[in-house]
Amino acid sequence: MANVAQAPLMTAPITTAPLEEKVAQLDGRKRAGKSKDYALKYVAACISNMTASGVSNPLDIIKVRQQLRTQAPGSRANAFWSVGVEMARTEGIRSMLGGFSASMLREIVYSGLRLGSYEFFKDTFYDMSKGALNREGLALKVSAAAVAATIGSALANPADLVKVRMQAYYPAGSPYRNMRHAFASIWQEGARATKSNSSVVGGLQALYRGVDATTVRGIVLSVSQICSYDQIKQTLKKKEIMEEGIGLHFTASMFAGLFCSITSNPVDVVKVRLMNDKAREFSGVTDCIRSIIRREGLGAFYKGFSMCWARLGTHTIVTFLIFERVRLLLGIEAM
Q1: What is d(CA 159, CA 162) in angstroms, rounded to the nearest whole number?
Q2: From CA 275, how far away is CA 283, in angstroms rounded?
Q3: Residue 246 has pLDDT above 70, yes or no
Q4: For the chain, which has fewer Cβ within 10 Å, the N-terminal or C-terminal residue?
Q5: What is its main location (predicted)?
C-alpha cells in the first residue's frame, strides 16, 4: 500500500489586538454610552419641567402680578386669592394661561439645561478633581448645579422676559398677540431705545434685560432645589429610612420646593421688576433693589411668596416625580 503524502495543515494566523487598542475601544463605547445617557437625561428634564410648568402656570401668573404691584406691604388687595379672583372676573379664566407658550420654550432651554446637564457637570468635575471632590459631598453638587444653572439661565433670558411681559397686567389689554409678536415687539422696543447705531445691539439688549438677576436667581434656585433634592434623597437612602421609589421622590422634592422658594423669592421679585421695566425706570439690579427698599420696605422682597411656594413647590414635586419616572422608562438609573 503506497504511502499517501500528507500535506501540511494550513492554519490561519491568529492575530491579537494590542491591549491599548482594546482599552481604547472599551473607553470609546463607554463614552458613547455616557453621551447617550446625558442626552436622554436632557430629554427627561425637558419633559418633566414642561409638564410641571403647564400644571403650575396659573400660580406663576398670579405670582408675577403680585410681584409687580407696588402697594404698601401687607395690603390685603395683594393677597393671592384677591389677585386670582380679580383676574378671573376682569380678564376671564383664560388669563390664567398667559405666557404659556413662552413658558414652554423657557423650560426647554432653562430647565432642560440646568437639570439635564447637572449630572454631566457632576461627573466632569469629579473626574477633573481626580477624586479630591467627594461624590457625595455638597461641594461637588453645588458646583455642578451652579454651572448648569448659569448656562441655562443666560441662554433662556429672552424667553423668560417674554413670559413675564405676557403675564403682566395691562389695563387696556395685552399689547402682545402671541409669543412671536412679543419677541418682535420687545426687539423693536430695544432698537428704538438704543444709543447705538445698531438696531441688532438694541434688540439683543432689550431681550437680555435683567439677565444678571435672572442668572443669579437661576443659580440660587438650582443650587437650593437640585442640591437639596439630591442630598435629602441620598441621606434618606443611606440611613435606610426610605428606599428608592415614589415615596422617596415625593418627600425629597417636597422639602426641595420649600428651600428653593425661600431662597429665590427676593431675587425673583427683582428679576420680574427689571424685566417689566419698559420705561427704563431702573438703571440696573442695584438701583432696582434700592428703589424697592425705599418705596416698599424689605417685606416687598417676599411679595408673592405664598404663590411662589405654591408654584415652586408644585413645580418641584411634579418635576422630580416625572423626571425619575421618565428616566426609568428610558432605562437610566435613578438620580
Answers
A1: 5
A2: 12
A3: yes
A4: N
A5: membrane
